[in-house]
Amino acid sequence: MIRFENVSVRYDGQEHPALRDADFEVPEGELVLLVGPSGSGKSTLLGAVSGLVPHFTGGTLRGRVTVAGRDTRTHKPRELADVVGTVGQDPLAHFVTDTVEDELAYGMESMGTAPDVMRRRVEETLDLLGLTELRDRPIATLSGGQRQRVAIGSVLTPHPRVLVLDEPTSALDPAAAEEVLAVLQRLVHDLGTTVLMAEHRLERVVQYADQVLLLPGPGERPRLGEPGRIMADSPVRPPVVELGRLAGWSPLPLSVRDARRKAGPLRERLADAPRPAAPAPSDPDTPPVARLSGAGVRRGHIEALRRITLTLGPGETVALMGRNGAGKSTLLSALVGLVRPSEGTVRVGDAVPHRAKPRDLIRRVGLVPQEPRDLLHADTVAAECAAADRDAGAAPGTCRALVSDLLPGIADSTHPRDLSEGQRLVLALAVVLAARPPLLLLDEPTRGLDYAAKARLLTVLRALAADGHTIVLATHDVELAAELAHRVLILADGESVADGPAAEVVVASPSFAPQVAKVLGTGPWLTVAQVREALR
Q1: How distant is the alpha carbon of residue 107 from its chain centre?
Q2: pLDDT in tens, 5-48
Q3: Minimal CA–CA distance to 434: which of 494, 394, 380?
Q4: What pairs with residue 260 in β-bridges?
C-alpha cells in the first residue's frame, strides 16, 4: 500500500537531510507506529506519504514514494485526497467550516459524494468518535481534545484507504484517547485501512501497532520491524518497557497486561524496599502565591467552572486533570486574568488578575497556552528571545539559554513557524520563564515532546519548584503527573471532584494511574525512577 524507495528529503539551509535513505514497504491493513526523538524526521515522512512533502513544504525529495500505486512526485495532495487522509499536529490548521457537522461533511462535498452517502457517513463518524452531542457546536468553542477528535473525524468520513496521523492522541484525555485508538483498530481490522501514525506518548499506542518504524535521529536510516524487537533498541521507550529492561524481563512487555504477568518477583523484591519520600507539604504560615475562593466562570449558558476553592503555596506543583472540556484551561485562564470570574474571587499574590496591568502581571504569573504560537510573534528564534528578555527586564541571553537547555540544536535564524509543535512549546516556555514569575501555568506542556525533551522539561520545572516557584499544569499526561506533581486536582464538568497527594489520587483512578502503578498494583510506586532507586 505504501512504498518508500531510497527516499531522502533535504530542506534548504539544513546541514543534514530531514529524512535519509528510507526504504521500506507497508502492506494494506496494518497500523504502523513511527517513533523517534523530536526532529528525527517523523513529520517529514508522514508528509511524504500525503504529498505535502515536497509539494507544499518545499525541499528536495530524492527517491520514490508510492501510495496505492500513485507516485507522490507526480500526484499533488489534492490528487491523493481520495486515498490518503491526513491529520497533523495542529487540528486548527485543518478546519475550513464553522461547525462540527459541517466540518465532517466538507471533505465529501469537495469530492462530490452523494448526499445520502454523506449523511450516513457523518452519522457513523459522530457515533464512532463520541461527537454526537457536539454536532451543532461551533468549532471555536471546543476544547483542544474535542477539536482533535473532529479533525480525525473529518478525514474518516471520505473513507480513505490510508490514514496519516501526527500525534492523534496528544490533546486527548486517557478515556478519549482509548476511544480514538479503538476506532483506529476497527478501521484496520474490519475495513483494511492502513494507518501510519506518529505519537510521542508510546505508553498509549505501542501495544496496538503491527509494526514500528524507528527514526533514530537526523541523518540516520529508518528501521521497520516488529514492535518488541524495535523497542529493545529504541532511544525512546514507554515506562512499561523501561520497567521491563530494569527488571531484566525477556521478551520486553509492550502492555500493562504483559508486564503484570511477569511482575510477581519484582513485587516481592519491592515489598521490603524503602518507600519513596512523600513531598513536604506547604508551610501553612507562608503567604499563598495564589488563591481561588468559590470561583466560578460562565461562558454563555455553560458553567465552565463552579465553586472552585484552591490555595497554591510556594514551591508547590499541582496537576489539573480531567476529561476534555472539564474546565482545566478555564481555571488557568482565570489565574492569568484572561477570563473574569462570574462568582467568587481569584487572587495572585495581592493582585486581582483580570484587573491588573499586563506589565505588572507578567512578573507575577506566566501562562504557556495549548497553542504556543499565541505567544510567538517575531520572525526568528533569536528575535523572539530578545523581545522576551526586554519585556521581562531579564539579562540579555536569558531566554535563549533556556531554549538551548530544553531543546538543543534550534538555530537562532529559524522562524518559529518552521519549528515542530514540541519545539514551539519549548520556545514559548522559555519566553514565559524569562520573567521568572512566582506562578507558572502550563497547559498541556508535554504535547509534542519526546521522552528526552520531557525529561529535560522535568529537570527545569523541578529546579523552579525547588527555588520556590509554584507550578500549575493542566495535563492529560498521567506519566508527567506521576513524575512531577505534589498534588493532583481532578475536575469534572467545572467542579473539583478530587484534590490530594498525587500518589493517592492517581492510584485511586484507573484512568489517571501511570503504567508502573498499574503493573505493580497497590502501593507507592508511580515511576520507573522510584523503582530503580528502591532496588538500589
Answers
A1: 26
A2: 999 998 887 778 888 999 999 999 999 999 988 778 888 899 99
A3: 394
A4: none
In a domain, 516, yes or no: yes
Distance, CA of 360 to CA of 351 (rounded, Å): 9
199-to-171, 179, 519 alpha-carbon distances in Å: 11, 16, 22
d(CA 163, CA 301): 37
Cβ density class 90-99: b for 16+ within 10 Å, e for less: bbeebbeeeb
3-class secondary structure, 241? helix
Q: Is 377 exposed, middle or buried (0-12, 13-18, 19+ CB in 10 A)?
A: exposed
Cell 461562558 maps to which residue? 299
Q: What is the pLDDT of residues 236-280, one digit of tens each?
A: 889 999 999 999 998 999 999 999 999 999 999 888 888 877 666
Length of the chain: 536
Q: Which three cell numbers stand for residue 164?
A: 496519516
212 and 77, same structural domain? yes
Q: What would you measure as the largest C-alpha separation in the chain, in angstroms?
A: 70
The gap from C-alpha 106 to its chain's centroid, in whole angstroms, comes to 26
Residues 6+ positions from 213 with CB-CB distance below 8 Å: 24, 32, 33, 34, 35, 45, 222, 223, 224, 230
Range of the domain at 355: 290-535
User: Which CATH number do you get for residue 7?
Assistant: 3.40.50.300
